[in-house]
Amino acid sequence: MDLLANALPALGEAFSLILQPQQILYLMVGVLLGLSVGVFPGLGGIAGLSLVLPFIFGMDPVSGLALMVGLVAVIPTSDTFASVLMGIPGSSASQATVLDGFPLAKKGEAARALSAAFASSLFGGLLGAFVLTFFILIARPLVLAFGLPEMLMITILGLSMVAILAGRLPLKGVAAAGLGLMVGTIGEALAGGSLRMSTYDVPYLIDGLKLVIVGLGIFAIPEIVSLLRQDRAIAKDASLGSGWFEGIRDWWANIWLSIRCSVIGVIVGIIPGLGGSVVDWIAYGHTVQTAKDKSGFGRGDVRGVIGPESSNNAKEGGGLVPTLIFGIPGSGSMAVFLGGMALLGYDAGPQLITNDLSVTYTVVWSLALANVFGAGLCIVLSGGIAKLTTIRFTLLAPFLFMMISFAAFQSRQSLGDLVALFAVGLLGIFLRRFDWSRPAFLIGFVLSDQAENFSFQAVQIAKSKFRFGTDVGLEYVFSPIVIILFIVTVISVVVGIRQAKAVMGTGDVPTGTKRAPLIFLLIVTAYFVVSYFNAAAISLQTDRLFPMTVSLVAIAACLALLVRMVRSPESDVVFADGEAGGEDSDAPHGLWATLAWFAALLVLSALLGFILALVLFLVAFLRVRAGLSWAKALLLSACGIGFMIFMAGSLNRDFPPGLLQEFVNLPWPLT
Amino acid sequence: MSVTKTTRRVAFGMVAAAAVAASASTQAVAAGHGINLEGKTVEFLIPFSESGGSAKWANFFAPLLSEALPGNPTVVVKYMPGAGSTKGANFFQEKRYDDGALIFGSSGSTQFPYLLGDPRVRYEYNDWNVVLASGTGGVAYLPPDLGARFDGDADDLKGIDFIYGSQGATRLDLVPLLAWEMLGMSVEPVFGIKGRGDGRLMFERGEANIDYQTSSAYLKGVVPLVEAGKAVPMMSWGALDEDGNIVRDPTFPDMPTFKEVCQATAGCETSGEKWEAWKAFFVAGFPAQKMVFLPQGAPQEAIDTYTAAFNAILARPDFAQMSEVTLGVYPQLTGKGAQGAKAQATQVPAEAKAFVTNWLEERYGVTLK
Q1: Average pLDDT of B258-266?
Q2: Which residue of A89, A156, B107, B210 pairs with A215 in a disulfide if CB–CB is 3.0 to 4.6 A?
Q3: What angle do CA A69, A72, A77 make, to 5 degrees?
Q4: What percentage of residues in chain B have a pLDDT greater than 90?
Q5: Is the pLDDT of residue A276 over 70?
Q6: Burial of B315 (0-12, 13-18, 19+ CB in 10 A)
Q7: CA angle, A657 as apex, A654 and A660 as ends, to 5°?
Q8: How far is CA A478 from the centre of its chain?
Q9: Which of B87, B93, B140 shows the shortest CA–CA distance to B109?
Q10: The model's pTM
Q11: Residues 51-80 of B with CB under 8 A from A
Q12: Which segments of A146-210 does DSSP mark as H helices, in order?
């Protein structure tokens, strides 16, 4: 009651602060900036916030907050454009959106998918703010109730989503997830610093691969290459079906799903240390599990867009809890946001709730308001922007290669980023071709760090708790939250395995000869075996246990697959091969010829630096592959490069340098 | 009539004099006593991500620097995290002085791998030109029940199983881990947390029962816990006086230093190999924790310009009030002071290095090869 008596006046004060013309204006500026930065995959909130940070100092606090919040709030909204239209997961918040959003775009229903996504985002954001308004007052004990065993259970719950996304063969799903987990362990172990599948001679690998690169490589590159080979528009027959109003109706028809997923988003968002990476997978898994007719998922079911999008904006609200009351940022952009708040004279921490409740509410409701502006604007725009999907893809593709290369380069600012992108992209192409579940791979990759660390740390702490007494230890390990999460996980796995067959992903996959799928399986198995022995050679037990265990399980799955391959005829689903029939095999252009274009961009970048390479690549591609006239090819290339330079210049970003730059000192942007 | 005339003449004369003085000072800057950064964008490179203490520190100075540098350039903080901060430092090592628009902020986490001979280190502090050194301190604290058993010495803390959330034994955590061990406490570090904030959260959840934070993080995150009766401060690491002695931390004058606690505790000695090693790494890690560098080959006028700018920032009347929250009450050194701090932070006696390297391997199985 006391709390409420404090909260209501603070809430009133917050609203009177936000609803001033000046603050609204700053909020709008933030929203517009966020939208224009956010559509760029891989840049996200950090780049946008860094852009405004130099101006924050000395601003009036409410205006400064409005500007920053507006910017942060719309990032998970705007990155939906890339996921739906191009199949590029813009950030960790929209990985799951790709699964159904992009197939919808291919069906010519991009506008519908976008508006459904934005309506869900808007609703999720509002619901998140509403829940937070009351919840933030009592959140502290609840957040503290989530210790390491609880976080480990949530991670396992996230991993259990593999069951429903495994595709036709659960074993292949297990192996794909195992591969993701193992790729996630590459580099320096977080606990003891031992190197896994890397050496000090290749500094790039020490830090492991970043999610941006893996997301782009696994989802975006295979789709772009496949579309490019078929030489058509993204939307089949280059026509747009249902419009944006349809999407809003879809959202309204699934309002309860949207509410449930928003609640999931808020809850997972408030737990510090988990970050946003599991939220959309849990929401997507939940959406599939609770749907009656599952046959459309992965092939363009609008519910597969509504679920994750409702959760990811609600998560932003939830993420404010650890950020504001513990001062522990849940993401990179939240960290920059905290830095900005410090410049305005506010420090995150418990005192922010007790002393400056009105500031807290200003942040929460600015977030909600920014969501309304941002998503509202996006809904209006979605009909027009969806027209992109009717353009001949060969004209879009070089610019997409340009964008994803640039996005990947932001991860580590090294040429290695481009090499890694290409390598992961190649893996993605094969996973797609042989019908290995790419979502399962990505879930494994995203949760690899957390699964290893939480389990290792929880075990260590549990050991010492047991030393205090068996009851203390048991209480720590089997808290009520752990037990509830355990039950949910078991249900999710059982339901998942029973229903996975209904979720076909890419549709019917043809089978061809035995040879290609067998070779791929053997290569993957060999990687597991090598990783196993590589891990076994590590002296610190803490650093070798996890990769050894995972690779053993994965090797077992691979061997079982191998047995099935030996025993089954060529027509068995285990021999799924996208090149044996269907869209890809009928494509007018070959896989390698198409991939060579992208490889050429890479090699040229390594020699001449990114911008010069881009000039050659764009002109050559548009002239030769797309068959444009010289004038058109030059004009389009100039536009693309101008855009790239403008974007990087205003965000103060560099381009990958090449061998040439080693010898000659060139001015930016050629550096 | 004549009065007005005189006044006008005087006024005119004063304006003219002022104008001459002003142009003279501008010329002085242009004529080699400084560099002008007008229209440029100064990149403040830090080898960490957006979420750590270095990001906070750099973002605190960036806008002030923009105001204080001649020509008011935009100052942007650039993050280049990776390989425990050695990646960004290696990158900076490759850079030669160009137009003064690149500065680098290093931290204790950059200094320690350098001192311990980490194989990833390709940088050399001696090549760089320091223009600012910021100090900090650290505080260890306990939960209330264990804090009640602490009475200025650690004798009653022996035999308790302590759990501590750690970022890794080769990082700054080396200083608290070695200190606790010297006090005879058995502290088991749980490695693999991603920042000291996570360590505090583990403490708050009751999973860890000892923790330490650097000063600013302690003031912000732990003091509220102390006030709520959920934590008790144990000791600070102390600060250095002008002669290099460890004295009480000016930010926490009421708290005993580790040196005092060690003297009061049976079996802990403030002399000998172990103590010297601890002190050397404390000095490298805290009193000169964060430094701003110009790249190698920087001319004296560039160093002077930046030094003058930082001096101007430190002389701001509102600096103390602004910096207290973000940086704590610690010396911010420029010029000679900064060079002295750099020397302290990057030169550790060979015996201390050998001791710590050996201790890391024996105690934690960590080798830097």
Answers
A1: 94
A2: A89
A3: 125
A4: 42
A5: no
A6: exposed
A7: 145
A8: 32
A9: B87
A10: 0.85
A11: 51, 55-56, 59-60, 62-64, 66, 74-78, 80
A12: 148-165, 170-185, 203-206
Using alpha carbons only, give the angle A647, A648, A653 rounded to the nearest 5 degrees.
Answer: 150
Q: Identify residue B148 by its one-letter amino acid code.
A: A
Q: What is the DSSP string of A434-472?
A: TT--HHHHHHHHHHHHHHHHHHHHHHHHHHHHHHH-HHH
Instruction: Assess B168–A contact: CB distance below 8 Å, yes or no.
Output: yes
Question: pLDDT tens for residues A556-610?
Answer: 999 999 999 999 888 888 888 888 777 777 778 888 889 999 999 999 999 998 9
Provide the token pair at A172.
């292949």
**In 10 A of CB A354, how many CB atoms?**
13
What pLDDT digit, counting tens, does each position of A285-315 carry? 889 888 888 778 888 889 999 999 998 888 8
Burial class (CB in 10 A: 0-12, 13-18, 19+), A594: buried
What digits encode the pLDDT tens for the residues A106-148? 888 888 899 999 999 999 988 888 888 888 878 778 778 888 9
CA distance A623 to A448: 44
What pLDDT digit, counting tens, does each position of B96-111 carry? 898 888 999 998 889 9
Cα of A300 vs its chain's centroid, Å? 19
In Å, the largest CA–CA distance within chain A is 80
How confident is the model at residue B50, as a pLDDT? 72
Chain A residues with CB-CB distance to B83 below 8 A: 188, 203, 206-207
Query: Which residue of B162, B191, B204, B327 is the best one to mutate when testing the A interface, meaning the one whose CB has the most A CBs within 10 A?
Result: B191
Q: Which helix (H) or strand (E) holds B102?
A: strand B102-106
Residue that has been written with the tokens 């330490």 in this structure: B212
Amino acid at B231: A
Residue contact B161–A468, C-beta within 8 A:
yes
A333: confidence class by pLDDT, cuts 50, 70, 90? confident
Strands of A385-536, DSSP E: none
Instruction: Note the pLDDT of residue B30.
Output: 41
Q: What is the mean pLDDT of residues A387-400?
A: 87
Nearest to B202 by CA among A334, A149, A318: A149
CA distance B324 to chain A (A): 11
Angle at the Cα of A539 from the Cα atoms of A533 and A542, rounded to 5 degrees: 95
Q: What value does the mean pLDDT of chain A take?
A: 85
What would the DSSP string read from start to end of A194-228? -EES--TTSHHHHT---HHHHHIIIIIHHHHHHHH
Going by pLDDT thresholds of 50, 70 and 90, the confidence category of residue A501 is: low
Contact present, B77 and B58 (Cβ < 8 Å)? yes
| Strand B246-247 to B239-240 pairing | antiparallel
Q: Which long-range contacts (CB under 8 A, 24 or more apart) does A44-47 make?
A: A44/A75, A44/A79, A44/A90, A44/A91, A44/A332, A44/A333, A45/A71, A45/A72, A45/A75, A45/A331, A45/A332, A45/A333, A45/A336, A45/A337, A46/A332, A46/A333, A46/A336, A46/B50, A47/A410, A47/A651, A47/A653
User: A379 is written with which tokens?
Assistant: 């809904």
